[in-house]
């Protein structure tokens, strides 16, 4: 039988929570979105360790906040708690397909909570206009330029292809071509990329194994090189190796085609995760919306749109294309990478719209305060790479991946 637990804030208010006998108190706190370090827990008036303590059926528990802020109000306002603290009525509609929520910093200096519900057709119109506004507001495409779209065959690049095609009349006039690196894709992903290019009338360039091997001067096929990185060097580095090889292949292809702008399918959580990781490791990510990499500008037109929103967009318009297979072996990230995504997803849950504020704040840092790392062209693969902090540009003649390949004896 569920047990009632008293939650007391420092504003002289009490609330009731429920817990199951035998449940860890830590689990009770997490389930109710209560920050662990914001409270102490007492059993029968005596402080207990909330990490080790399980709920005793006959004991009385009290959770006390150690900080005087309006946690219950915030949890109620964002509907993480179902209480009557939030004022006003919630919008409801029977045909709702998606509800967009924001809890954003207002011009008056406080936070405002807003929500708008869309039916299926309204949602498609909304998210396409969101995409168009995102391109225009950040100047990601200028009239008359050539843009190379990197297509992986996954949902993100597929959705980006649909957005660019369906909203073309509302965007600056541009020439769009596509590129797909077959080395890191399943056959189904490659056929997907080919059918999408054919459907939209975008010229498609396929980059195959032999070209990737040539780009890196590898003595073995690319997949063998990646296998050696994963099993003979560091398993956690395999996904970074895949991304690096893909970017090199796409950058080299763009140069060959005389194209100086590449559109990648990085959506909101991808960019947020990159920013969070850069803060954790102390290495600048670059711009929130675009990044200069040597002669190439990389742009992220999907920056205002999240993965769930992309999935719902494809489901509304092209449900047969709304499928995503499991990642290939080399793209199965380690736990450290997953944690960064979990942090971002959790942040968006408790603070809807946090990504937009993170983008703007990070961009101001990049524009006004951050010293971006020196960039060089790798003498082996010719990809533009960033020289690590404290390192000499003269001493760094090859990129990190080529250094690893050399250590493993994989270069010719």
What labels describe this entry?
Ubiquitin-like (UB roll); globular; Rossmann fold; alpha/beta; six-stranded mixed beta sheet; 412 residues; 2 domains
Task: Describe the model.
The protein is of the alpha/beta class and 412 residues long. The protein has 2 domains: 3-77, Beta-grasp domain (Ubiquitin-like (UB roll)), CATH 3.10.20; 122-407, HUPs (Rossmann fold), CATH 3.40.50. Helix content is 39%, strand content 18%. The strands form 4 sheets. It has a 6-stranded mixed sheet with strand order 10-9-8-11-13-12, with helices on both faces. α4 runs parallel beside α5 (187-200), α9 crosses α11 (335-350) and α9 packs across α12.
Give the overall shape: globular
Major beta-sheet overview: 6 strands, mixed
How large a portion of the residues is in β-strands, by DSSP E?
15-25%
Distance between the termini: 68 Å
Q: Provide the number of structural domains.
A: 2
């Amino acid at each position: 039988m569920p047990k009632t637990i008293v939650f007391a804030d420092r504003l002289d208010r009490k609330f009731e929570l429920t817990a199951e006998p035998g449940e860890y108190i830590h689990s009770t706190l997490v389930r109710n979105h209560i920050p662990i370090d914001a409270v102490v827990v007492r059993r029968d008036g005596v402080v207990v360790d909330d990490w080790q303590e399980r709920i005793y059926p006959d004991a009385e528990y009290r959770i006390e906040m150690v900080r005087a802020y309006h946690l219950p109000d915030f949890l109620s306002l964002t509907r993480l708690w179902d209480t009557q603290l939030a004022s006003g009525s919630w919008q409801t509609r029977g045909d709702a397909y998606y509800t967009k929520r924001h809890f954003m910093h207002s011009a008056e200096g406080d936070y405002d909570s807003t929500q708008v519900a869309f039916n299926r057709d309204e949602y498609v119109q909304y998210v396409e206009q969101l995409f168009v506004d995102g391109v225009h507001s950040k100047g990601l495409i200028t009239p008359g330029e050539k843009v190379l779209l990197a297509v992986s065959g996954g949902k993100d690049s597929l959705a980006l292809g649909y957005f660019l095609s369906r909203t073309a009349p509302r965007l600056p006039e541009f020439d769009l071509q596509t590129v797909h690196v077959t080395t890191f894709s399943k056959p189904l992903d490659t056929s997907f990329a080919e059918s999408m290019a054919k459907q939209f009338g975008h010229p498609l360039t396929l980059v195959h194994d032999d070209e990737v091997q040539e780009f890196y001067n590898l003595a073995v096929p690319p997949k063998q090189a990646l296998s050696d990185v994963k099993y003979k060097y560091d398993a956690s580095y395999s996904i970074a190796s895949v991304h690096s090889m893909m970017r090199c292949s796409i950058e080299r292809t763009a140069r060959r085609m005389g194209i100086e702008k590449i559109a990648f399918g990085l959506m909101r959580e991808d960019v947020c995760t990159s920013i969070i990781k850069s803060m954790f490791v102390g290495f600048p990510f670059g711009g929130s919306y675009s990044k200069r990499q040597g002669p190439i500008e990389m742009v992220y037109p999907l920056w205002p749109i999240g993965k769930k929103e992309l999935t719902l967009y494809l489901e509304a318009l092209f449900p047969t294309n709304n499928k995503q297979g499991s990642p290939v072996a080399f793209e199965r990230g380690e736990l450290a990478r997953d944690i960064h995504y979990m942090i971002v997803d959790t942040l968006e849950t408790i603070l809807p719209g946090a990504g937009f504020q993170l983008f703007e704040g990070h961009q101001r840092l990049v524009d006004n305060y951050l010293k971006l790392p020196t960039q060089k062209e790798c003498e082996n693969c010719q990809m533009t790479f960033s020289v690590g902090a404290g390192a000499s540009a003269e001493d760094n003649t090859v990129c990190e991946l080529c250094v690893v390949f050399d250590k493993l004896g994989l270069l010719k």
